[in-house]
Each structure stands twice: as structure tokens, then as C-alpha cells.
Write a structure and sequence with these properties.
Elements lengths: L3 E4 L9 H10 L5 E6 L11 H10 L4 E6 L7 H6 L4 E5 L6 H10 L3 E6 L17 E5 L14 H15 L4 E5 L4 H10 L3 E4 L1 H4 L4 H10 L8
Parallel strand pairs: 1-8, 2-3, 3-4, 4-5, 5-6, 6-7, 7-8
Bound molecules: ribulose-5-phosphate.
The site of ribulose-5-phosphate has 22 residues, from strand 2, strand 8 and helix 7.
Protein name: Ribulose-phosphate 3-epimerase
Organism: Pedobacter africanus
Enzyme class: isomerase
Length: 223
């Protein structure tokens, strides 16, 4: 499969949310990336169910919901009911990760686990076979517009090698500081879902930027 592009709604203009949702609908983007922050797991608060339901009402593509919250188990069913197609929980926020992943699947969603920049990919070895996706954070979570942490490339490569033995069709998503400058390298390292916020919404034409990100060919790059 070619790679997927998931614009991060966190960087949208919330006063013109429907306009930005329609822009994503009409673009070559594949998913909507929806960042939920609770002010506890991360030092920022974004939005919750009402905003997500408003996005769902107009979105014509899957909602990829990234929960940057403590105790995500409490809210899995509600996020599924609010329209999530993919639910990502943080490794660092889950005591019984296997149970949480089971709950996500039972709610009818794809299950994904996110790793903060300091968390090693190897910690997912025993649960990789149960996951649909791993989200590698390439910035410290909480804010859009930060600089990409270069060690992420190494982590993506390591995870892709591990997945080749355990879960060859694993989706690997990278989130934070992604743009045209590092897309080819990330694809070549083994990522196949790229989240971009600032790179898309601060571009002169967000639609054209999505097309450019979608057209990047990772096969020609050596990293
Ligand atoms: O999860 C996030 C922040 O925690 C955002 O999805 C991410 O930062 C995307 O924004 P940008 O592409 O501007 O870095």
C-alpha cells in the first residue's frame, strides 16, 4: 500500500472547523487525526467529545483518535460511540495494556499504541501481534508545531524490523514535526501513516501540501 496522510485537526482553525474538515474531505488525505489532550498526561488541553462529534458529522474519512489522556480505559466506548475508527492509547498511560487493546477491538475500532520519544520500541514486542498500528511520537506530545526528534528514524526502523517477524501488516504512524523535509526518510525507514499539522495548515495551500506529502516516494531515499 502507499502511505496514508492524516492531517492533525489540532492545527485547524477551530472557528472555521467545518471549512477545514471539508478541505480535508476534498483533498487526497486519508484520515482525520484527532488529538485529545487532558491537561494531565500532557501539559495541554485540546478538546473532547463535543468537538469530536462535530468533526464526525462532516468528515467523510476515518477518524484516527489519539488519546493523550490518563485512564483511557474509562473512555474507550465513548470515543467509539463518538465516531472513532482508530483509537490510539499511550503505552505510558496504560497499566494493563493488553486489556485496553481488547477493549478497543471490542468497541469495533482498530487498536493502536503510542510511544513517547523516550520509550523503547522493544517494549511492545509481546503485544505487537494484537495491534493494528503503533504511533511513534517524534516530538514530546502536547503541542503542534514542534521540531522533529531525529532519533525517531532509528525507532521506526527498529519497529519495522520487529514487525516483519511478528506482524508484517502493522501500520506505523509517525506524529510530530512531519513535513516535506523528512517524509521520504520516514517512509524509507518503514513508516506508512504520517500525521502532519503545522506543515499542512500553515502552508499557503493546505490541499496542495497534502498532495505533495502524498506523492513523496520513499523508495529512492537512503538513510
Ligand atoms: O500529537 C500531536 C501533538 O502532541 C500532534 O498531532 C502533532 O504535534 C502534529 O502537529 P505538527 O505536525 O505541527 O507537529
Amino acid at each position: 500500500m502507499t502511505h496514508l496522510i492524516a492531517p492533525s485537526v489540532l492545527s485547524a482553525d477551530f472557528a472555521n472547523l467545518q471549512r477545514d474538515v471539508e478541505m480535508i474531505n476534498a483533498s487526497q488525505a486519508d484520515w482525520f487525526h484527532v488529538d485529545v489532550m487532558d491537561g494531565v498526561f500532557v501539559p495541554n488541553i485540546s478538546f473532547g467529545f463535543p468537538v469530536m462529534e462535530a468533526i464526525k458529522k462532516h468528515a467523510k474519512k476515518p477518524l484516527d483518535v489519539h488519546l493523550m489522556i490518563v485512564n483511557p480505559d474509562q473512555y474507550i466506548e465513548r470515543f467509539a460511540a463518538a465516531g472513532a475508527d482508530v483509537i490510539t492509547v499511550h503505552y505510558e498511560a496504560c497499566t494493563h495494556l493488553h486489556r485496553t487493546v481488547q477493549a478497543i477491538h471490542a468497541a469495533g475500532c482498530k487498536a493502536s499504541v503510542a510511544l513517547n520519544p523516550h520509550t523503547p520500541a522493544a517494549l511492545l514486542k509481546d503485544i505487537l501481534g494484537d495491534l493494528d498500528m503503533v504511533l511513534i511520537m517524534s516530538v514530546n506530545p502536547g503541542f503542534g508545531g514542534q521540531q522533529f526528534i531525529p532519533n525517531t528514524l532509528h525507532k521506526v526502523r527498529e519497529l519495522r524490523a520487529m514487525a516483519a517477524l511478528i506482524k508484517p501488516d502493522l501500520l506505523i504512524e509517525v506524529d510530530g514535526g512531519v513535513g516535506l523535509h523528512n517524509t521520504a526518510a520516514l517512509l524509507q525507514a518503514g513508516a506508512n501513516v504520517l500525521v502532519a499539522g503545522n506543515a499542512i495548515f500553515a502552508a499557503p495551500s493546505p490541499t496542495a501540501m497534502i498532495t505533495e506529502l502524498k506523492q513523496v516516494d520513499g523508495s529512492a531515499v537512503q538513510v
